[in-house]
Amino acid sequence: MWGTPGNQGTLEVDGKHITVSKNAWEVLEAMQSRPKLGKLFWIDTVCIDQGNTKERNHQVSLMRDIYSSAEKVYVWLGLGTSRSGYAMEMLRDNDLSLVAEDRDLKPESTPFESLKMESCPIPNHLRIR
């Protein structure tokens, strides 16, 4: 797991605990508060065994097909700051195809605790053997 313990969170998936980066935690927390986005997400740092080079390389080779066949793809750049609006304006000004879920991104301070997710399949590399 990348990062220091203070930059990690714990997911509970079907009664098992998975450590994730603060960035993965923040995106899951943000998605949880936006139910219209759906409930099924593929997050590479969780779904791909980062310690297995063969699996990781194979999965990376599939990413083009995965993303191009996805109904929707969300990109998480982190929590908003006081300058996030400038980035959104630049994207709109350059006529990039952008659907902003949050027009006024603000920095947030949220507790970094465990998040419970039920009935989410666990990748084989994370299963308790």
Automatic annotation (TrEMBL):
Any matching Pfam family: HET
Domain Heterokaryon incompatibility: 2-101
Transmembrane regions: none
Protein name as annotated: Heterokaryon incompatibility protein-domain-containing protein
